[in-house]
Amino acid sequence: MGNVFVSVKDIDFGETKWIDTRFSLQDVHEGQRKYEQSHVTGAVYWDLEQDMSDMTKTAGRHPMPEKEALTNLFRKSGLSIGDHIVIYDDGGSPFAARAWWLLQYAGFTNAVIAVEGFGAITQAGIPIDSVASVPVLTSMSPEWDEGIYASRQLVEETVAGNTAGILLDARAAERYRGEKEPIDPIAGRIPGALNFDWEQLKKGGIFDLDGSVKSQLAQVADPSEEVTVYCGSGVTAAPLYAMLKHNGFDSVRLYVGSYSDWISQKDAKVEKD
Length: 273
Prior knowledge:
This protein is an alpha/beta fold. It has helices at residues 30-37, 67-76, 95-105, 118-123, 152-159, 173-176, 212-220, 237-246, 258-262, and strands spanning 5-6, 17-20, 39-40, 44-45, 85-88, 111-114, 128-129, 166-169, 194-195, 202-203, 206-207, 226-230, 251-254.
């Protein structure tokens, strides 16, 4: 696969389509306000809850939209399958990675994440304005890659030992251990899961691409293993997925429903330390 992340200094503005994914889990309107104040010229805005999730579903706290809704999102965003696309958030956030994973799932192989975020983009001299983008509607057809999507059934099979894969929990260690659960009604983890806190992926507030993360990931899983990543709602697992792919892990899936979906079933088993 190609690059997952790109440094702002290496971006060719003229050959790029842009997606702004800034968001705040504490203030769900913050990203839209930031976009309206200033964004990369021509960028479209994808909201975590309005565009990249279907909040009417019950499969976790940020369920994935249906394929039809995603296809409509891609088309109204003016995207074609071969486009070179740069996605940004504020840097070190999970939202650009969520969009990137959705694009990977749909077959957009030329999408990358701007690792430093919007602040660095403004400093790099890339054109910025406050004019809402109105892209030309496309008729693109996604090329869905089911190999990177983990269904609940697949996770159940992994827990039962019927697959060769491992589960990797991207939440903080105290939530993984079941010591503290500030969001979900049941503390703990999916049985058998290992832990790699997604915050460990960062240095100085942005994702660390210098190689130290690669060695840390290799202590948890082998690059040849099948890895299914999850978190609380499928959002912060996306950067863990992206960093695994960036560091040479070939077979990685994302359980979008994640722990919040797992515990939604009455008979769901969980582990605690």
